[in-house]
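Morning run. Coffee first, then this:
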Amino acid sequence: MSAKRGRPAKGTENSSKDKIIDATVNIIKNEGAKAVTVRNVCTRAGLSIGTFYHYFRDKDDLMMHFLRETSFDTFELTTPLSDIAGRITELYMHLINSYMELGLEFMKSFYSTENRSLSVYMGETDGSFAPGTVMARSEDEMNKAAAKGYIKTKTDIHTVCMDICTIVKGSVFEWCLNGGTTDIEPSLTRIIRKYLNN
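And here it is:
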């Protein structure tokens, strides 16, 4: 007998969504991001397709969950604004560490050209970063640093933030290529500091 379609029963809301997320992580770790389909996730989670669509619009919306689960609007940074390179590194390391907790195989698959949600999240629309994203917060921090005189006033901050995002993606990719053996934070700090000093 097939599972009922539609809205999950009361009291199962969080557990059903958690099952979808857990199944997705499991698929990515074991089979790669390409294997993530609505049907595969539902089969692995033991849930109906209707339940999936109660929580997510489609596969891309599901993959965006891993990027959206932390809002960077209110995240408290401890590195002083005067050390803007260290502050930006701290900001990005919060995101990177949350991904690394999911494991190397997850990261290798997630940081791929096949993951359209990653390029949507870590990109821009009409010259702006999406609110709540790490890039939007990075730009906000850079603007604050510029207002305090820590960054030259003629700096194109938006372009600098795009470049830093590219540096971060490259560092994560390098970590994946080296089998998770490199320490991202010191090299990321060094590269961002050198870039901003120029």
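The first helix runs from residue 13 to 31. Good start to the day.
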